[in-house]
Amino acid sequence: MDIELHNTLTRKKEKFTPLQHGLFSKPTIGMYNCGPTVYNYAHIGNLRAYVFADTLKRLMKANGYKVKQVINITDVGHLTSEADSGEDKIEKASEREHKSAWDIAKFYTDAFFEDLTLLNIDTQGTKFPRATDYISEQIKIIKTLETKGFTYRTSDGIYFDTSKFPGYGKLGGLYGMGKDLKIDNQLNLSSRIGLDNEKRNQRDFALWKFSPKGEKRDMEWPSPWGVGFPGWHIECSAMSRALLGETFDIHTGGIDHIPTHHNNEIAQSEGSQGKPFVRYWMHNAFINIQGEKMAKSDENFITLQSVKEKGYSPLAYRYFLLGARYSTPLNFTWQALDGAANAYKKLITAVCELPLGGKVNKEIWNRALGFVADDLDTPKVLALCWDLLKDDKLSPADKKATIIKIDEMLGLKLGEKEDKIEIPENILKLVNERKNARDKKDWKKSDQLREQITKLGFEVKDTAEGQKIVSPSSPHVVNV
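The structure assignment produced for this chain is given below.
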């Protein structure tokens, strides 16, 4: 089946054709997804990027491709200002929490992996390179750029001269940004980035930063230019090249990466290797809260742990995200999440109550695959699942088999085994008491116990197979 994706590089939807071509089997897709800077917990806006990338990966696998996926871990070099000034975010967190920069990076990397697990992100075969493990590769690229005349030295580092790269700013159609401050002003970027009198052009960026004199950093390395640490952008170029090659298929990230980070990646990668860097660039839109972009710097962010603490399943948040295309801005409210959680609970309850043993309806599966192949139109896939539940032409068992197959692209665990859900002892005790009351046909006591269970946040259902419980923290159904 043809796959069509919106390519930020060309600013239009295009048919996807892989870089490799297999004679007897579909080729492997090389995909790089910009990963976290591990100085704090990822917020739910950050996590949208990984649900988006995961949906893309699942689409490729469903279409018969193998996927070589890389999600980087930025554990050094990302400064508090995109103007290549300010403190390193990891070092700043080290001061805040009175831990070494290495301990900070490990702690928040582990927290990120936990978030991926909670959101059911498919990490099978995924590589998670850390920037600190690729210092020599970064230095090698900078030396090549220096030899080719793309760099210059200032008092605080080695910089890339964007005026020497004719295509700078081509991603997103931002041509000339390296030379024309008028364009910066139109995009409201100059005020954010600030002015540096040592820069030849205000869009020039650091490849290597010198360690401040008299200041000992946890993370610094020797280089041909002096002791220091890499710039944020060079890290991604080095890791993607080492693991995916000089040219690969797909690069994703948030739309905030387009003007600076991703255009800088293109400039330094193509400037050093003299060939195209990435064939398809894809970007997800923001999650807004109270009309503003969710951001750790503004302290208006919500973590996945906060979602859990309020009694929501992390997969209810995944359902919330899949209810809109990745490229559509979303406004997060607890009321909106509540609606998504209720819908998700109803969907998974309905699927769990269907019998096993059916066959996948190929026509419906192909429709679902076609929706996702159309630039990841997941809202239509969710609507298809709801319509399928109402379809009288299919047997209940075939409905279940088909929805579980579709869920391979959605990742909502709609076919999760019921025995994985833990129910508190006090709830189980009440449910067993209710069963005994029903066996004795004591309907009054049965109703009282149902009401008691409901007040404690659980729902009990009577079915032909016996009592079933729906948990508030997980929408899966448990047989009793």
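Interim note for the steering committee: The first strand starts at residue 4 and ends at 7. Residues 44-62 form the longest helix (19 residues).
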